[in-house]
């Protein structure tokens, strides 16, 4: 009799047990870090003479508070949290840039940090000179650095700018060069901060491919990021920090949800209705699937037309709200996502009491399985404010026999030509 399929929770438990059997690459034990910040900064001797006591007033910022974590060899580990939560401070302590005030840190093997844009680079030196110097500083011999030079430059795609001084590089070019060097030095442990967000989309995809190769090669990677999709896509485990304290450590999907709870607030009505935002200005009333206009369904065949729908009620005036819809599979991976602001779709203006239906039409080429629909409405400002998000609100079953092993069985054409 064939074995029953395991659940994601069982898979996560087995992965955690396997990780526990591997030797530790990084051990952080009770680490705390406090910065002392003067309340008044002086730029002249006169100011210091007139206010001699003010210079003694010091504020303390507790960046890390008793942080402990063990990361086994070969693990891709994520660190997430809001701005000011202590993520980058922890990474700098791991890299040896900061000394911890209390606790201990142990890193096994050669370490390659990619933490701050331009750190370790001399702006008055050319790219050629910076690559060779930094490769040596990260552990390569001079001969090996010269041997790998062409591969580093080719990955960064900066062949035309080799003899240009770095002070004339754009931030994106800095990222390309720094990432290329950091990932070509055969380090056992890589520390990656979210400076990758500066790179363009094509280079980010190239970096993600490199992540896959490094992970397959058994490297230990620590990634600091605000991008929960990257956490779910790459990480074996993740840690959530808030105000320097460890809130939780666990499976990436669980940590991503906890991160959203801290950012957007959480209202739990029952175990099947996770809700974010206060829905005071706008409320997602309902969501459903349609096969034809007005025909609600919870089952469709592969290839059928499919429309994702949600009903939104406004409790206050909102100009150009953002409407979003996400479809996730049984293990919580986002298979399809769309939002009006990314697509440049005018969303309109609404007054108190307005009720609207939002529809997104497509053909259903999802693999046979079950999928959940997450609808949300927000508004833009300095950042996107989620007004109401109802996670996994509606279930859809896709039926069919066309399952090639992928999550999407998209229409495509084969062409085989004999030479």
Q: Please report the distance between the alpha carbons of the first and last residues.
A: 47 Å
Please state roughly what percent of the residues sit in beta strands, choosing from under 5%, 5-15%, 15-25%, 25-35%, 35-45% or over 45%: 35-45%
- Tally of strands: 23
CATH class descriptor name of the largest domain: Alpha Beta
Helix proportion range: 25-40%
Stretches where pLDDT falls below 50 for ≥5 residues? 1-17, 266-272
Number of domains: 2
The major beta sheet can be summarized as: 8 strands, mixed
Properties at a glance:
single chain; 419 residues; alpha+beta; Rossmann fold; Coagulation Factor XIII, Chain A, domain 1; 8-stranded mixed sheet; 10 helices
Characterization of this structure:
This protein is of the alpha+beta class and 419 residues long. The chain folds into two domains: 22-262, P-loop containing nucleotide triphosphate hydrolases (Rossmann fold), CATH 3.40.50.300; 272-399, Coagulation Factor XIII, Chain A, domain 1 (Distorted Sandwich). It has helices at 8-21, 45-50, 87-95, 127-137, 142-156, 171-182, 201-216, 228-234, 252-264, 340-343, and strands spanning 24-38, 58-72, 76-81, 102-107, 111-114, 189-192, 220-224, 237-242, 245-250, 266-270, 273-276, 282-290, 296-297, 299-301, 305-314, 318-319, 322-328, 334-339, 349-350, 355-363, 369-379, 385-391, 394-399. The strands form five sheets. Strands 10, 11, 14, 17, 18, 21, 22 and 23 form an eight-stranded mixed sheet that branches. Helix 4 (127-137) runs parallel beside helix 6. The protein is globular. The chain starts with 7 loop residues before the first helix and ends in a 20-residue tail after the last strand. Residues 1-17 and 266-272 have low confidence and may be disordered.
